[in-house]
Amino acid sequence: GAVVSQHPSRVICKSGTSVKIECRSLDFQATTMFWYRQFPKQSLMLMATSNEGSKATYEQGVEKDKFLINHASLTLSTLTVTSAHPEDSSFYICSARDRVTGFGTEAFFGQGTRLTVV
Amino acid sequence: GEDVEQSLFLSVREGDSSVINCTYTDSSSTYLYWYKQEPGAGLQLLTYIFSNMDMKQDQRLTVLLNKKDKHLSLRIADTQTGDSAIYFCAESLNRDDKIIFGKGTRLHILP
Q1: Which of A59, A73, A107, B50 could potentially form a cystine with A95 if both were Cys, beta carbons 3.0 to 4.6 Å apart?
Q2: Which is nearest to A3 in space by CA: A93, A66, A95, A69?
Q3: Which residue of A has its CA nearest to B85?
Q4: Is the CB of residue A35 less than 8 Å from the CB of residue A20?
């Protein structure tokens, strides 16, 4: 099946620094990518929808200036956590839909990035 | 707005059937999904069902949809230790729309 690769899988950064997480669709083109944040005790929250070549659509309550999303190509979207704080520590997961099949039945998920801010 | 609810935990004995339930609020949802997440990993699509279907069976998995009650269930027959994971119910309005997830049900397998 289609593969979505997230990098890095784990990152530890100092408070106040910025961290970039990459999400790549390896064998398909993704017009739309989604960024999720998974909180402790399982809850998976949609942060934003990223469309290639246009601005991301953020969900209510998600700070646009803090979580910068760029979707520069059909195979790459990036999430940058700016001025990270310990409360930003979380598991971030991206997903992408195949542009060609676009059937809507499957969004492929990355393996996630564990961010720890110290 | 969209909301998906499911119980957080389920314990089942190995060999028994597991039934994970989910309710959703948006009657416009067209696609309903079940995803599986193993520890430290991303999400894997297990199965999906269209809103115009009542049931879908795929090997050990059976999905039942009661559209009137906005209730979705996933039945795993002959539950194995490898089925131990978190199962997420999810829905989307359209084929290209965002997918909204429930909080996930952690399935624990008893020996």
Answers
A1: A107
A2: A95
A3: A42
A4: no
Is the pLDDT confidence value at B79 over 90? yes
Rounded CA-CA distance A64/A56 in Å is 9
> How much is the pLDDT for A2?
66
Give the C-alpha distances (Å, rounded to integers) separating B5 from A44, A106, B70, B99, B105.
Answer: 12, 21, 11, 14, 10
Q: What share of chain A is helix, strand, coil (3-state, %, to 5)?
A: 5, 50, 45
Under DSSP, is residue B61 helix (H, G, I), strand (E, B) or coil?
Answer: strand
> Percent of chain A, pLDDT > 70?
90
Specify the pLDDT at position B26: 82
Contact in structure between A34 and A88 (CB atoms under 8 Å): no
Select from A34, A42, A114 the Cβ nearest to the Cβ of B99. A34
List CB contacts (< 8 A) between A52 and chain B: none
CB A94 within 8 A of CB A111: no
Question: Do B88 and A95 make contact, defined as CB atoms within 8 angstroms?
Answer: no
For residues B63 and B94, give the distance between their C-alpha atoms in angstroms, rounded to a whole number: 20
pLDDT digits (tens, 9 = 90+) for B25-75: 887 878 899 999 988 777 888 988 988 899 999 999 999 999 999 999 999
